[in-house]
Every structure is written in C-alpha cells, then in structure tokens.
C-alpha cells in the first residue's frame, strides 16, 4: 500500500508501491480548453488514487485535432522540466459536439505516436502513457449514479438516478446527464461547473464501472 510522505524538500522521498524512493512527478496533457472539466477532474482523481504523486499543472489542448498534432512537443517539454511520467488523456468523441462518426481509438493513437516521434520521443518510451476516455469524461461522472443523485437532490426534492452498469457504452453521456439535470434547479449540465463537484463526491468503486476509468487507474498506478 501507499504510505505517507516522510519529509518535504528537494528530494521528496515517500513510500511507493516499490518501497522507499523518490516521489514520481507526473504531467497530464488533456483534450479540453483551459477551463475544461478535465483540468480539475483528472489531477484530482490522480491524487485520490495515488496521494503520493506530485502532479504538475496540466496542459490543456482545446481540440482533439490539436492534441493529436501538438502533444509531442508538450510531452517533451514536460519530460525536460523534470516529469518522470507524462499521461496523455483524450475523449473518444471530440468535444463541442463534433462527433466525427464513432471515433477511433486506434487512429487517435497512431497520430499521437507520430507527434511524439516528431518531437524526438520514441513512441515506445515508457515514460509517456496514453489513456482514451470512452466516450467522454461524462461517462466517469455517470458511473457513480449515487453521486449524481446526491448532487441534484435537495431536502425537498430527492432525485433518483438509475445505476449505469456500463457507462462506457452510453452513446452520448453528456445528453444522458442533461436528462437528469433538466428536471432540477440546475436545468442544464455544464461540464466546467458540475463535473468536478460530482467527481469529488464519487466512490472509486463505482467509478470502476467504467472500463476506461479502470485503464486510467491502472496506467496511473503503473508509474509508481
């Protein structure tokens, strides 16, 4: 199990899954705008899963196209600045409603690897990890139906949100959330306002209903 940090300072030693060693410094490259939900959700979950990680401020790239083409130079910058690991996180379906069909994780990965190679990073370099969220971060929000229900409920009005056994299979998770929000005081789900607040109250075991969340967790714990 992960232990507590013993001290702070230049060395920052802690007990990791491998025993005594230096704290691992991790940087995230995210497919979202500067105020996008992922800029808060992903680093917060990383610290929830592995409290001893040092997580640097994430790099938001505001479209899938930009992430696929520019992630290489940003990954190199993070590695050069002292990150031992860089994790690139993107949605299978693009933001802003530009669905581009069903999305293709394989094609995304190939373009990302090409960007890494152009930046001088071998695509097989274990310091860089890829995680595709299926189909968008709202699938993780939907995974904990109780956290969604608690967020929407008031003392006078209890909201029931059915359990979602396979959140990654929901075609449009954002629309699914909006159906619940529409009948409440919020009226509409807004990712930058609501996703983080729900995720903060979410249970990790419920989040694990999402296969892509389990992949994220596995990749994250692999760095330790």
3D architecture notes:
Helix content is 41%, strand content 15%. It has 224 residues and is an alpha/beta fold. Strands 3, 4, 5, 6 and 7 form a five-stranded parallel beta sheet that branches. Strands 1-2 form a two-stranded antiparallel ribbon. A hairpin with a 2-residue loop joins strand 1 (13-16) and strand 2 (19-22). The chain is globular, with a radius of gyration of 18 Å. The model is unreliable at 1-20 and 95-99 (pLDDT under 50).
Give the arrangement of secondary structure elements.
Elements: E1 13-16, E2 19-22, E3 25-31, H1 38-49, E4 54-55, E5 59-61, H2 64-80, E6 85-91, H3 105-118, E7 128-133, H4 138-143, H5 145-152, H6 173-181, H7 191-200, H8 204-207, H9 211-222
Helix pairs in contact: 1-7, 2-3
In percent, how helical is the residue content? 40-55%
Shape label: globular
Rg estimate, integer Å = 18 Å
Overall pLDDT metric: 89
Number of helices: 9
Order of helices and strands: EEEHEEHEHEHHHHHH
How many strands? 7
Structural class given helices, strands, pairing? alpha/beta
Residue share in β-strands: 5-15%
Please give the domain count: 1
Distance between the termini: 11 Å
Q: Oligomeric state of the chains?
A: single chain
């Amino acid at each position: 199990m992960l232990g507590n940090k013993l001290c702070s300072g230049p060395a920052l030693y802690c007990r990791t899954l491998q025993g005594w060693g230096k704290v691992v410094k991790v940087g995230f490259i995210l497919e979202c705008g500067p105020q996008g939900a992922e800029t808060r959700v992903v680093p917060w979950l990383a610290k929830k899963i592995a409290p001893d990680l040092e997580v640097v401020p994430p790099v938001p790239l505001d479209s899938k196209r930009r992430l696929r083409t520019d992630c290489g130079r940003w990954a190199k910058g993070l590695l050069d600045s002292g990150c031992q690991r860089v994790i690139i996180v993107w949605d299978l379906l693009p933001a802003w409603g530009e669905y581009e069909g069903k999305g293709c994780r394989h094609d995304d990965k190939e373009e990302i690897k090409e960007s890494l190679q152009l930046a001088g990073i071998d695509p097989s370099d274990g310091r860089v990890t890829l995680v595709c969220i299926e189909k968008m971060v709202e699938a993780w929000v939907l995974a904990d139906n109780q956290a969604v229900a608690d967020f929407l409920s008031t003392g006078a009005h209890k909201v029931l949100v059915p359990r979602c056994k396979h959140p990654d299979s929901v075609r449009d998770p954002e629309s699914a959330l909006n159906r619940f929000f529409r009948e409440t005081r919020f009226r509409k789900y807004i990712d930058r306002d609501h996703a983080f607040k729900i995720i903060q109250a979410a249970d990790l075991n419920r989040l694990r209903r999402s296969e892509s969340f389990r992949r994220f967790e596995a990749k994250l714990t692999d760095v330790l």
